[in-house]
């Protein structure tokens, strides 16, 4: 059996077009729309010879593959590597890189830690932090919003919510970049991220231990499950690692992308200001429109068939969530950012048993920031060129120069 990027080489299945493209080319990663459109135009699947994978980007098939955990497993890795064939760069996640029945046990513990009740209890804390941050940024007027807002907010509230005794903003962000670049091929992005490992991984591993966490946070709930005999201590530490892996870069990207949308479409920001009830649907539209996690893989664990295409056991499938989220078959005028759309069924947080377990927390964080904005900020404007940052799995901004204008005292009490 031939191998490429840590998985089995396959032949293009009958009827599937061969497409000579590198979906991990940085020029595509920073500006993916025409790649998304071309992928959808190829049919339900395209065969990409450079990596010997199938890619899908139509909403229907992407949803089918992504949510069928029996045929398309996660335990073999959600990046290009097949963990049946190659050892992953770090111990396998007990939740995102696991299948039922084991997955049900770990997922249950994280669901409890991150329940609507647990995250709802943080509302006031989040709002106070967001109000303070936006006040400071209004004081400055203009700033670089990725560092000073998108990164600043989660790295302030998240380590405290987890219950970490000490925090290192840079290490948390860089670890996220490693985890997500790690899902791609052995390209320059992945190598550069992996080179940070020796500086970061030992610190992350250390913070996951019970002794480095304090009562009242998500980690404490996880270690209560250890004390109740549901999972063992090492599993508890690994679930804390899952929080640190998936909880920072994703929410940083959510906030950065939200601000970019509102600066790009000022008439949509006007609608938000006029009706703050739109804050939550507006964030769903940000997720649909910018797909912070642009792609994730599955591995076929049986010989099967999707949309008439025969798929061989061991095939890696690149599920291009960003393409599914801009499929005109699913979304009328997908290229329009519309805060009133309420885009039910977007795949930005996945679908099926692996659907983002931190979604309540993510939504609560972003809602706090958007609430502070609509209460205090009249205008959100670009103050220079926004640039996207290539990452093998995340679609995020690298720089976002922003200028904010305060709501005038006269209309403060509207
Ligand atoms: C984890 C994890 C969870 C979600 C996403 C992710 C690949 C990692 O459990 O470590 O990124």
Keywords:
single chain, 414 residues, five-stranded mixed sheet, three-stranded antiparallel sheet
Strand content: 5-15%
Q: Provide the CATH architecture.
A: Orthogonal Bundle
Helix share bin? 40-55%
Helical/strand content category: alpha+beta
| Strand element count | 14
What is shown here, in short?
The protein has 414 residues and is an alpha+beta fold. The protein has 17 helices and 14 strands.
Describe the model.
The chain has one domain: Cytochrome p450 (Orthogonal Bundle), CATH 1.10.630.10. Helix content is 46%, strand content 13%. It has 17 helices and 14 strands. The protein has helices at 26-30, 33-41, 59-67, 102-113, 116-120, 123-140, 145-162, 169-181, 188-194, 197-207, 218-227, 233-246, 249-264, 266-274, 279-290, 321-324, 359-376; strands at 3-4, 7-8, 46-48, 53-56, 72-73, 142-144, 295-300, 304-306, 309-311, 316-320, 377-382, 387-389, 396-399, 401-406. The strands form five sheets. The chain has a five-stranded mixed beta sheet with strand order 3-4-10-7-5, with helices on both faces. Strands 6-14-11 form a three-stranded antiparallel beta sheet. The radius of gyration is 21 Å and the shape is globular. 3-methoxybenzoic acid binds at residues 93, 95-96, 179-180, 183, 242, 245-246. 3-methoxybenzoic acid binds next to helix 8 and helix 12.
């Amino acid at each position: 059996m031939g191998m490429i990027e840590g998985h089995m080489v396959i032949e293009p299945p009958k009827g599937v077009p061969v497409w000579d493209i590198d979906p991990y080319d940085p020029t595509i990663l920073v500006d993916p729309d025409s790649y998304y459109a071309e992928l959808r135009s190829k049919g339900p699947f395209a065969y990409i010879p450079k990596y010997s994978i199938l890619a899908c980007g139509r909403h229907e098939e992407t949803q089918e593959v992504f949510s069928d955990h029996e045929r398309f497993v996660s335990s073999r890795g959600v990046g290009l590597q097949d963990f049946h064939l190659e050892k992953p760069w770090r111990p396998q996640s007990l939740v995102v890189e696991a299948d039922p029945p084991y997955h049900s046990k770990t997922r249950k513990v994280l669901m409890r830690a991150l329940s609507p009740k647990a995250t709802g209890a943080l509302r006031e804390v989040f709002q106070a932090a967001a109000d303070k941050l936006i006040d400071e940024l209004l004081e400055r007027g203009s700033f670089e919003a990725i560092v000073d807002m998108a990164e600043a907010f989660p790295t302030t509230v998240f380590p405290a919510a987890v219950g970490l005794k000490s925090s290192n903003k840079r290490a948390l962000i860089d670890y996220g970049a490693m985890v997500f670049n790690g899902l791609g091929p052995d390209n320059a992005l992945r190598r550069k991220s992996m080179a940070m490992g020796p500086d970061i991984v030992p610190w992350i591993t250390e913070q996951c231990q019970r002794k480095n966490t304090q009562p009242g946070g998500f980690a404490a709930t996880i270690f209560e499950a250890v004390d109740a005999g549901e999972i063992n201590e090492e599993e508890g530490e690994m679930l804390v690692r899952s929080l640190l892996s998936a909880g920072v870069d994703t929410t940083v990207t959510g906030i950065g992308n939200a601000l970019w949308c509102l600066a790009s479409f000022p008439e949509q920001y006007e609608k938000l200001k006029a009706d703050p009830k739109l804050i939550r649907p507006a964030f769903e539209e940000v997720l649909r429109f910018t797909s912070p996690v642009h792609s994730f893989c599955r591995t076929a664990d049986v010989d099967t068939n999707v949309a008439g295409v025969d798929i061989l056991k061991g095939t890696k499938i690149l599920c291009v969530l960003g393409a599914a989220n801009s499929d005109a078959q699913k979304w009328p005028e997908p290229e329009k950012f519309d805060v009133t759309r309420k885009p039910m069924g977007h795949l930005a947080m996945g679908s099926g048993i692996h659907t983002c377990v931190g979604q309540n927390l993510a939504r609560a964080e972003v809602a706090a920031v958007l609430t502070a904005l609509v209460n205090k900020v009249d205008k959100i404007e670009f103050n220079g060129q926004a640039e996207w940052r290539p990452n093998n799995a995340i679609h995020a901004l690298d720089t976002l120069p922003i200028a904010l204008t305060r709501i005038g005292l006269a209309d403060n009490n509207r």
